[in-house]
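Cont'd.
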Amino acid sequence: MTTMAPGVLVPVADRPAARGRWGSVLRTPVGIGAGVLLAAVLVLAVVAPVVWGAQAEAVDTDAILQGSSAAHLVGTDNLGRDLFARTMVATGLSVRLALTATVLTVVLGMLLGAAPLLLGRRAGRLVTAGIDIAVAFPGLLLALFFAIVFGVGATGAVLAIGVAGAPVFARLTSTLAAGVASRDYVLAARVAGVGRFRVLLRHVFPNIAEPLVVNATIGAGGALLAFAGLSFLGLGVQAPDYDWGRLLQDGLSGIYRHPEAALAPGLAIVVAGLAFNLFGEAVAKGIGLTSAAGVVRGRRAAGADRQPATERGPVAGQPVLDVEDLSVAFPGAGGPVRPVRGVTFSVGRGEAVGVVGESGSGKSLTALAVARLVEAPGEVTAARLDFRGTDLRTGGERAHRRLLGTGFAMVFQDPMTSLNPTRRIGHQLAEGARRHQGLSRAAGLARAVDRLRSVRVPEPERRARQYPHEFSGGMRQRAMIGMGLMGEPALIVADEPTTALDVTVQRSVLDLLAAIRRSDDVALLLISHDVAVVREVCDRVLVMYAGRIVEDLPADRLAAGRHPYTRALVATVPDMAVDLDAPLPVIPGRPVDPSAQPPGCAYAARCPLASDRCRAEDPPLAADASGSRVACWHADEVADGALAAAGAAREEVA
Amino acid sequence: MTAVAPASAVGTPSRRMADNPWLAFAVRRTGRLLVSLWVLVTASFLILHLIPGDPVRAALGPTAPAALVAARRASLGLDRPLWEQYVDYLRGVLTGDLGSSLGSSLPVSRIIGQRLPATLELALLAFVVVVALAVPIGAGMGVLTRGGRRRGGELAFSSASTVVGAVPDFVLGVGFVYVFSVTLGWLPVAGRTGPSSYVLPVLALAVGPAAALARIVRVEMLTALRSDHVRTARAKRLPAWQVNLGHALPHALTASITLGGLLLSALVAGTVLVENVFSWPGLGSTIVSSILEKDYPVVQGVVLVYGAGVLLVNLAVDVVLSLLDPRSVIRES
C-alpha cells in the first residue's frame, strides 16, 4: 500500500488477462461448439421474424393440421399456418423475453446482493436473511408465485421469472462481493473516504464481473426454459403471440396425429437452452482451469533415465525393508516426470532410519512408493522391493493385503484429515484388525481400546466412542499411531508425523514413537524436513535431493557430512551457539524442478564446489569402508569447502 | 489436552446448549423453520393484496353486477381491515381452514386432500429413481475415472450428463410420450390409471435431476478418493470395495446431499409441469387451472402446500446431513 489515491489501487492489470482467457475458451472444441450454437440462436432470433414472418402468419384453410411434407417441413397448425416457419419465428420472442427477464434478474440481484455493502450492517443483515429464505425455494415455484401476482401474460411472466431469479443471483453477488470487499485495496479506498456507492462501482463490481457474466449466461438459459414452461402451462405468452412453450402446448394436444408439431418446438427449446448453458459452462471451466494451471511444462532431461551405479547401504542380517533402484514416474506434458529416481536403501530390524531433504526432494513419495500406496497415473518401478523377505512387486494388491495390513504401519502428516471425520475412532482402529486378523466386532473394539491406552490416550474406553473432531491434534496423531499398532508391525513409516502439530505436543509424539521402537523392536522410517528431529530419533539418515539419495550416514555423524548438500542442510539448523544477531543461514538457490532434471548432479547449480564434471555427469552413490554412502564427485574435498558453503549461504541472505 | 471444547458461553442456558451441540442444532433449525413458515404463510396471504387492481372484479369480469362483486368481496373478507384479515388467515391456516373455492364452493382443504396424494406419489417415486440412478452411476464413474483414468469414458459421461441434465422435464415428457406411447404404444399417453401410467411421468421428472446428481456425486467421489483419510483406509490394506463403499462413498454422499436437496426441492416444483404434460390429477394441474380461473383461495392453499413441501425437504436434508456428518451440527448456520 504505497498510495491512498483510490484510482491507482484498482487492479487494472487483471483486465487484459481476463480478455485473453475468454479468447482461449473459444479455442477449445466445446467452447467453439457452444459459441457457434449460441451465436446461431442469437442471429436466428433477429433474422427469423424477417425471413419467415410472412409465411408464419399465412393462413391456408386448405392445409389444416397436416403432417410433415415437402411444402411444410413440420406440418401445419389448425389454421393451416406453416409450423416450421412459426417455430423459427418464435425464436425471436422466446430469446427476447428470456434475455429481458435475465437483465431484470441481474439488476435486481446485484442491487440486493450489494445491499450489505451499501446499507450498512443492520439493514444488510435483514436483506441477507430475506435472500436466505427465498433461495430455499426452487426458481420455478417462485416464478409461479410471482406469475400469480403479476398476472397471466408475457409481461407478467417476464417480471415473474426476472424476480424469481434474483435471490440466487443476489446470493452469488454478495458472496463474491464479500470476498473482494475485504481486500486491501478496497479497504484502502474506504479509509481514503471514497463513498460506498463509488467503492461498489469502481472497486467491487469490476472485480467480480467475470463470474457474474458467466452465471448470467447460464441464467439466461434457465430463464429461457422457465419461460417455455410458463407459456406451456398457459401462464406466459398469450395468443395471438406465440413462443416455443406456447407452440409445444398447442402441439401436445394433437401428438397422435402429427407429433412433429410438438417435437419441433421441444427440440428448439432444448437446443437454445443448451447453447446458453454449454457456453456459460465452457467459459466457467476455461477460467477455472487457467487460474489453477501452473501446468507442468516439463521437458525431459537428457540423462533422466540413465541410472548411475549405486551401491547398497549397510545391511545387518535380514533387513525389514530392502529397496533397490526405486523410481516413481508421473505422466507429464513433455514425457514422464520422475520425482523419485533410482533410490536404494534398506532398513534393518528395529532400526530407525530418517529421510531428510527439502520439500519436493521426493522423500514422502518414496515412503508412499515403498508402502505400495502410489496410485495410477503414478508408476513405481524397482529392481527390488522386499518387505520381511517378501517381494512386494509381484502379485497384486490382494496378495500382500494381510502382510502389509498387520506388519506395515503408516503415520501421515495431518491427523485431522487422515482420520475419517465421520467415523468413531474405535471403529477406525478396529476396522483393519477385523479384516486382517479376523477379530469380532467386540474383540476389535477391545483391542482398539487397549491400543489407545498403549499410545497414552487417557480414558480410552470413552475416547474410542468419540469422533476425530473431539480429539486434540496430538491425541489424534497418537490414535493414528495406535491404528498402526493394531497388528504386530515390523515397520512404521511416519511421514512428517509432527509437522502439523503444535510444538508443545511434537515432543510427546516423538517420544512415543521412540518408546514403541525400543519396546517392540519395530523399525522406523521417519520422513521429515526437520534435521534436528531426525538427528535425535534416528540411527541412520538418508539425505535426499531431487529424487535421489545423495548421502547415507549415521545420525551422529550428520555434522560431519561429506556431501555439500548435507552440510548446507545441517548449517540451516540453529543451535544454542548461534549468533542471534546474524541472519539465519539458508541454502541459496531453489530445488530442481522434477520435470527438468539436469544431466549432471542435480545439486550442481547450488553447490559452491561444482565443477564441469558435476554439471555433465551424475555422481554414483558410493559406499566407503564404514558402509556410509555419498554421491558427490567432490566428497573428499568437502572438508574445507563446507565452511565456505555455509559462509556463502550466510552472505547470500545478508 | 482434552477434546476441543466449544468456546464457553456466558449465560447458563446457552452454556447448556453449547454443551449439547445437538440441542443447539435442534433449537436453531426449528427457529429457522418457523421463521420460513411464517414468511411463507404471509406471502400466500399477501397474494390477494399484491395483485394490482381488484382481484374480485378481475375474477368475475367487467360485466358482473356491482352487487355480486360486493358480496364476493365480503365473503372473502376483503372489506375488513387488513390486520383483521391477516389474523383470520393465520387462524385459518393453523386450524386447517383454508376457505372455499370460488368456482366449486368446495373447501380448499378438501380439494388439496384429494389432489395431494397423486402429486406426492409422483415426487417420491421420482426421488427414489433419481437416487437409484445417480448414486451408483456417479460413484461408479468416479471410481473408474479417478486420477485421470479412462479419459474417453469421462468425456462421454460428462457430455451425456450435461445434455440430458439440460433437457427440461416437460419437453422430455413430450418426447417420451412420442416415443413410448405414440410410436411404440407401450405405455399410456396420460392419466393415472394403472402402474404402467406412472412410468413416463416418473421418468420424465427423474432423468434430468438424476443426470445432474450423478455429475455431482462423481465429482465428490473424486474429491473423496483423493482425500487423506481414504489414503489411510488404503494404508490399512482394506479391499477396494471396502475403501470405496465404506470410506469414500459416505463422504461423497454427504458432500452431495446439500446440492441433492436443492435438486429434490426443484423436483417438487417440476411436478407442476410434468402433471400438465400427462394430465396427472394432482396439485400441479389444480394450481394452473385455478390461476387461469382466478380462483384465489385454491391458489393460496396450493402455494402453501408446495412451499411447506420445499421447507420440509430442506429440513430433512439438514437432519440427514447432521446424522451423517456429526461436525455439521456444531458449524455455525
